[in-house]
Each structure stands twice: as C-alpha cells, then as structure tokens.
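Lab notebook page, bench 4
Experiment: in silico fold of construct C2
Operator: M.H.
Input chain length: 304 residues
Purpose: comparison with the prior construct
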Amino acid sequence: MGAKLQASGLRLTWAYSPDALKVLVSSDGVNFAEAAGWQSNTRSDVSFTHFVSFARPTSVRAVTVLMRGPRNWGFFGISSAALLADMGPSMLVSGSTSAQSGCVVRDASEDQVFLAPCLDAIATGLGKEIFIAKESGGTGTTFESTTSLGQCLASASPIGGGQLVLKACDAVGAEGRFSFTVSGQLKLPGLGNYCVTVSGTVLSTEDCDEVGKSSDAGDKFFLVAASPVDTNIGSVASDVAILATASADRLSASNEALSSALQSCSLIGNENLSLIQKNRGSVESYFAELIAETRKIIAVARRS
C-alpha cells in the first residue's frame, strides 16, 4: 500500500464466501499480527459485501485474510477488498501500462492537472502530486490539492469527454465527487456513466463502457497513501535550479555575443572561434550537471 494507513476495519466483497475468516495486519509489511480473530459468516449467500471491524484502530501497510470452511460451492474467494481508513494525503496513480507509473499532478497554472511520471513529481519536493482524499457525505470522494488548498479535482464538462481540472472545493458538485468501481475505474456516479481516463498526459472524463475497452488500462486508477510534504525544501531547491539555468543562459548569450564581436573585428580566426564555442559548450554542460545534482539533493531530502 506504500505508506501506512490508520485503519479501523476492512470491507470485503466475496466472490464465494467461506464459513469463517480471520484478518492479520502488518505495519511494516513483514511482521503480521491479528486484527480480527476467527469469526463465522452469518450470511449464507454466495456473494455479498462483508464489513470486518478491528479490535482497535491500527497502523496498516499490508493485510492478510485467512479463510476456512468452504461451503456448498466447494471453494472460497474475494473479488475486492478495501481498508476502512482515514484517507488523508494520497497520490492518485494511473494503472495505465507504461514504463513509469504516472501520477495526477497539479500544473503551474494551479487550475489544471496532467499525468506525469510519479518519480519525477516526487523528486521536485513540491508536493504537487499529493491530494487530500475526503469522503463527501456519502456522495463520493473529493480530492483536494495539498499545494493549492481549497482547489479540488473535477470534470470541466463530462459531456463529450471533458478535461479534468481543479475547481473551488466549496463550489464542486457531482462533477467533483468520485468513487472507485470494482474494476478500478474512477467514476463520477452523480453524473451517470462517466469515468476518468488518460491519453498521453491529458486526463478527461468519458463514457465508462467505452474507456473500459482500452487495451492499456488508461481508465484504471488507484490511491497510494503519501506522507505530508515539506514544500519548503522543494521550493528552495527549485529556486536554485532556476537560478542555475538562468546563469547558464546568460553565460551562453555572453559567449555568443563575444564570439560575434571578436569575429567581426577580425581579431580571431575560425580555429580560435571553434575553441571558444567549445568552451561555451563546457560551461553549459557544467550548469546542466549542477541542475542534475540539485534534483538529486531534492530526492535525498525527500527520503530523509
């Protein structure tokens, strides 16, 4: 699950219900402890939704469900499971099949979002990939940007494939209340049969049945719990990178102007001009390396 969640229970949807079950949880993904002891299923249905309460709220990173006692159908199995947890800060990750996992990220305009490689977004240290997931009175889940508080994900206009944008949370209605389907689609149930999908970096809402035919799982999304971000680290490092880039551009322009001036005055030949141009390339390379090192520093700071 990525980061730990504070959970009070588990919601299970049985494909084939067992006679009894037991739930183990782990806060580190390695060591498991009992969260709910063996309990018998009181319903005789083959398939139904079952809520299991933990003895106490528990920090959870991984869950194991033990089952025993196959019924008349001869076997048992789960079709879906979800923790009953405080949702909190999360990354909304695309299930699209690609070389890198993609996250929904707020762009610089503060009212648009796009899909970007999760590692790149995390490395900036700016937290633009983190949203606060909140239940909205039983009508769905809202996703508020942690770096633009008061702005929530919403469909600009779902009719005909409206783009996903950020809107004022207090003004968001059904176009900004989402729910996850059993198949992993991110749906807007209050607007009918519309789901979020991605094409390249563009996020939009389209007919759930149509996008469900996609071969690259561009209509599938899931939440990954995230730790709160200290955006000051990312902001400072970003400023350093901007200054380094600007300095490289100024030096490049100065070298270009100097080369042109010397050449026009016939003070240097083509051979020396080539040498100056080569040195200019070395300066630009140096600043490119500086920017790359800055990004590494951001990544280390995020992990510490």
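Observations: The chain has three domains: 5-85, 88-225, 231-303. The first helix runs from residue 118 to 124.
Next step: discuss at group meeting.
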